[in-house]
Specification:
By secondary structure, the chain is α/β, with parallel strands linked by helices. It has 2 domains: about 210 residues, no CATH class; about 210 residues, Alpha-Beta Complex (Spore Coat Polysaccharide Biosynthesis Protein SpsA, Chain A), CATH 3.90.550. The protein has 19 helices and 16 strands. The strands form 5 sheets. A 7-stranded mixed β-sheet has the order 5-4-3-6-12-8-13. Strands 7-14-9 form a 3-stranded mixed β-sheet. The radius of gyration is 25 Å and the shape is globular.
């Protein structure tokens, strides 16, 4: 017993995880779904009208949707969170790399100020493609190193690899140029690096510009939902179980030895983050994801930037998944579940054509009176609608409270142009990196915005045509079904477009948010105070406010941290009062 205990004490540390408690019946719901899906798929193929163009199109779209559901439900069975391990920061040598492109100097300044306040950071290095005098002036004033490399080769990955070549630190904190990092980040994450297999620890991307149109009210919390809520609160934590958590480009601490083992940050794609973590996992390294907010960045300020960013993600995913030698379908070294998790992350960005098919098919069916099935329509509706309803309900349960069905569907419909255009990565490797601008006008000219409005108008016209046919006595099943689906699509699209108009209108007529009026140290203190429950006046006076937090609730939401929202308008001190919303 003594020898065994001694051997156990000498065994290397491994990261320990806590499985969040969930209702016992959750796995059984998934296996019930599988039992239904197995006979449903061949029945759906049999029901298809192969003699009409609409039959194979809708069948392919539905099978793709079933595959996405199976990937999500199969990989998100359990939520595993790492157990915190205290550490002595004097043991570690950590440098901070901040890659920049064309971000405003005041945004970079606040990021550098926050990085300098991190406990345990040895040096902050600001990276750039080309010389920018205004950024150099900021770096010289704050006494940090500025490294313009004189080239934009390999875009962001090339920038980061330049930083690697100019740092000898064993660990690197990676921050995008707009992220205000918390000072205790290293105290929270470095203990996990006692596990010699850990290559990186990734935190969530949390945003402080809650006035962006990507945020919606959820559970009576203003800005309580965003398009990425599901990914950072459910999908990434579930990947811990399979050692498949992705590097997402910022808010991460990385082990230099792991990067050296793969030749540095991956090049050749515009999504160097997931590409890099894919190579790292293939080399046998492990990763850790924590959903504790460690830094706060800025979401897209306009729909144009939203579209550009989502198109880049889709293009990078298509390139990695189907054109790269590092595709999770063929790269050696990954486990089966790692392959499935990476494939899930990549194929999710291919939903654009799926949404386009669900959008245009009902309109075309109504105009051509095409019928996509050849069996009894009433029976088809009962079976298909029943399976779809169960799938949607199960997706909501497995979201652990992070899903708002209407918001999710609305943003998927609005995002389908970007994801569809990104599929060009299947045919051409997109190497040009277009960084998202974090400041600017809310209203910017873009063809996508007009396309969505034309699409909404077309759906309104065809829906009206279908209603006219019904009122005229044509109550055929094809007309009824097409009209109902057109109305549903119109509802989801307008759910996105109308708030977007209001958001753009406020940008033209309302005063700017508080963070726009603050720079440097003032903006840093404002953001930290916002999340710590203290509001920062422009004068620097701190006003203590309570923070509403929600505990981890089994089967609901894993580790959500919800805060009171504070607004500020010059000359209106009453606007300092917090929202009356409370977390439920």
């Amino acid at each position: 017993m003594t020898a065994t205990a001694s051997a156990a004490s000498e065994a290397p540390y491994r990261v320990e995880y806590e499985r969040l408690p969930e209702p016992w019946w959750m796995p059984w719901l998934f296996w019930a779904w599988v039992a239904i899906a197995v006979p449903y798929v061949p029945w759906r193929i049999y029901a298809t009208n192969w003699a009409n163009w609409s039959g194979p199109l809708l069948l392919a779209s539905e099978l793709f949707a079933i595959m996405l559901a199976a990937l999500f439900l199969g990989t998100a069975q359990q939520i595993h969170m790492p157990i915190h391990r205290p550490t002595d920061l004097t043991r570690w040598v950590v440098d901070c790399l901040i890659p920049t492109h064309l971000e405003p100097a005041d945004v970079i300044e606040c990021t550098v100020i926050a990085a300098l306040k991190v406990h345990g950071i040895r040096e902050v290095i600001v990276l750039a493609n080309f010389e920018r005098p205004e950024v150099r002036a900021v770096c010289e004033r704050l006494r940090v190193r500025y490294l313009p490399r004189g080239s934009n080769e390999h875009a962001k990955a090339g920038n980061l690899n330049t930083g690697l070549a100019h740092s000898d630190a064993a660990f690197l904190l990676h921050l995008d140029a707009d992220y205000i990092v918390r000072p205790e980040i290293l105290q929270r994450v470095m203990g996990w690096f006692d596990d010699p297999t850990v290559a990186f620890v990734q935190g969530p991307q949390t945003y402080y510009n809650h006035d962006s149109f990507v945020f919606r009210t959820f559970r009576r919390i203003r800005a309580g939902w965003s398009e990425q809520t599901m990914f950072y609160q459910v999908i990434q934590p579930s990947k811990n179980r399979w050692n498949a958590a992705c590097f997402v480009g910022s808010c991460a601490v990385m082990r230099r030895a792991a990067l050296d083992s793969i030749g540095g940050f991956a090049t050749g794609t515009v999504t160097e983050d997931i590409h890099t973590s894919l190579r790292i996992h293939a080399k046998g390294w492990s990763s850790v994801y924590t959903n504790e907010p460690v830094a706060y960045g800025m979401e897209a300020p306009s729909f144009k930037e939203f579209y550009n960013q989502r198109r880049r993600w889709a293009a990078g995913a298509a390139t990695i998944g189907f054109r790269s030698a590092d595709s999770p379908l063929r790269i050696p070294g990954l486990t089966l579940m790692q392959r499935i998790n990476y494939f899930n992350s990549i194929i999710t960005h291919a939903q654009g054509p799926l949404r386009a098919a669900f959008t245009f098919a009902p309109m075309l069916c109504l105009l051509t009176f095409a019928v996509p099935i050849h069996i009894n329509v009433a029976w088809f509706i009962v079976v298909s609608l029943g399976f779809s309803t169960y799938s949607a309900a199960l997706g909501w349960i497995y979201s652990r409270g992070a899903m708002h069905f209407i918001h999710n569907e609305a943003y998927l419909y609005a995002n389908h142009p970007g994801m569809s255009m990104g599929m060009a990565g299947l045919f051409k490797v997109r190497r040009e990196f277009v960084s998202s601008r974090k400041t600017g006008k809310r209203t910017e000219r873009t063809w996508v915005r007009w396309y969505l409005w034309l699409l909404a108008t077309a759906m309104l016209a065809t829906g009206g045509y279908g209603l006219a046919l019904i009122l005229a006595g044509n109550r055929s099943t094809a007309v009824l079904l097409a009209t109902v689906f057109i109305a549903m699509n119109e509802f989801f699209l307008l759910w996105f477009l109308i708030p977007l108009i209001r958001y753009e209108h406020r940008g033209r007529h309302a005063p700017p948010p508080a963070y726009h009026t603050l720079t440097g140290e003032d903006r840093y203190r404002y953001v930290m105070g916002f999340y710590d429950g203290r509001y920062v006046m422009p004068s620097g006076i701190m006003v203590d406010r309570p923070v509403k937090t929600s505990r981890i609730r089994p089967g609901r939401r894993p580790g959500w941290v919800q805060t009171r929202v504070f607004t500020y308008e010059p000359g209106k001190p009453e606007s300092l009062e917090p929202e009356t919303a409370t977390a439920t």
